[in-house]
Each structure stands twice: as structure tokens, then as C-alpha cells.
Write a structure and sequence with these properties.
Largest sheet: 5 strands, mixed
Radius of gyration: 15 Å
Shape: globular
Strand order of the largest sheet: 4-3-2-1-5
Number of strands: 5
Number of helices: 2
Order of helices and strands: EHEEEEH
Distance between the termini: 42 Å
Strand content: 15-25%
């Protein structure tokens, strides 16, 4: 369910009013991020406290809004006050899971095979 791999992802830098919903978020995607909301891209928005995240996605028939509220912690977010930032679908997955997509801990490098 939801967008697959290789989808374009736009992260709305700064703070978003989390009261915005299915009508307000597409307006932000177009007016603030300068993107077509029905383009098939995913748009990520974070609230002021940092513990709430909304994703907006056009599935071809209508808009889908995915909402997540963390019980502890905050979603990692860039320091920029406004504008948009592109993420990969892998970074979006890390963001949704609360993993810091800016500095993932990949562990030890692969060992050489002998």
C-alpha cells in the first residue's frame, strides 16, 4: 500500500501546521514547494514539536494522507527554515521509521572474501 520504490520525495523544510489535511497539504505542495501535488510524488511535512509527520501522495484516483505520531523522540529534519529538499525512497523509509536518514549507521563495511 502506498508509493513504491523510485518515487520522487519532497520534504517541506521548516514547520507545517499539522491541522492541514487533504485540502490544505496539496495547496502547500504547490504554493510553497512549487511542485504539482498530483504528480505522483510524495510530500513530507513535519509539525512544530517534531513528533508528527504527514505524507501526501496522489495515487491516480485521489490524495492519500499518511500520518504518524511518535510516542517518544522526534523525526529528523533539516535545519532549513523553508523550501524543499529531495529525498530518495530509501531515505523516506528511514524517515517514516524515525531513523536519522541524514546520518544512517551502516555498521562495519563489508569484509573481503578470501
Amino acid at each position: 500500500m502506498g508509493p513504491g520504490t523510485g518515487v520522487r520525495v519532497y520534504l517541506a523544510c521548516g514547520v507545517t501546521d499539522m491541522r492541514k489535511g487533504i485540502a490544505g497539504l496539496p495547496a502547500l505542495a504547490q504554493g510553497v514547494l512549487w511542485q504539482k501535488p498530483a504528480s505522483g510524488a510524495v510530500f513530507a511535512f513535519r509539525g512544530r514539536r517534531g513528533d508528527r509527520l504527514k505524507l501526501l501522495y496522489w495515487d491516480g484516483q485521489g490524495f492519500c494522507v499518511y500520518y504518524k505520531a511518535l510516542e517518544r523522540g522526534r523525526f529528523p529534519w533539516p535545519n532549513a527554515q523553508d523550501g524543499a529538499m529531495r529525498l530518495t525512497s530509501a531515505q523516506l523509509t528511514m524517515l517514516w521509521e524515525g531513523i536519522d536518514w541524514r546520518r544512517p549507521d551502516w555498521g562495519a563495511p563489508p569484509a573481503r572474501m578470501g
